[in-house]
UniProtKB/TrEMBL annotation:
Entries under PROSITE patterns matching the protein: ACYLPHOSPHATASE_1 (PS00150), ACYLPHOSPHATASE_2 (PS00151), ACYLPHOSPHATASE_3 (PS51160)
Acylphosphatase-like domain span: 5-92
UniProt keyword annotation of Ligase present: no
Entry superkingdom: Bacteria
Family in the record: Belongs to the acylphosphatase family.
UniProt cross-references to InterPro entries, sorted A to Z: Acylphosphatase, Acylphosphatase-like_dom, Acylphosphatase-like_dom_sf, Acylphosphatase_CS
Protein name: Acylphosphatase
Catalyzed reactions: an acyl phosphate + H2O = a carboxylate + phosphate + H(+)
Active site (catalytic residues): R20, N38
PANTHER family (alphabetical): ACYLPHOSPHATASE
GO terms for MF: acylphosphatase activity
């Protein structure tokens, strides 16, 4: 299966609702590597890399988010998969 990376910006009620924690859980369940972080403007930013099917699964989950979230928009951009990331981390 092809490997891909997706950069995503998630807006709405996505901070203070455990969005980053649950994103990490979704990514780790599918062996997706990358990171997630809060942005000063209230959005969440994520980088997802791995097998295309697993990355697309996590990308789709971003549109729903955890129970307390209210996702307004996800802007996702496919990137060249040129670097292997290790694990999935929550960045400060």
């Amino acid at each position: 299966m092809a490997k891909i990376c997706v950069h995503a910006l998630i807006s709405g009620r996505v901070q203070g609702v455990w969005f980053r924690h649950f994103t990490r859980e979704q990514a780790e369940a599918g062996a997706v590597t990358g990171w997630v972080r809060n942005l000063p403007d209230g959005r969440v930013e994520a980088m997802l890399c791995g097998d295309e099917k697993a990355v697309r699964h996590v990308e789709a989950w971003l549109s729903r988010g955890p129970e307390l979230a209210n996702v307004a928009e996800v802007v996702a951009t496919d990137l060249d998969h040129d670097a292997e990331l290790t694990g999935f981390v929550i960045m400060d």
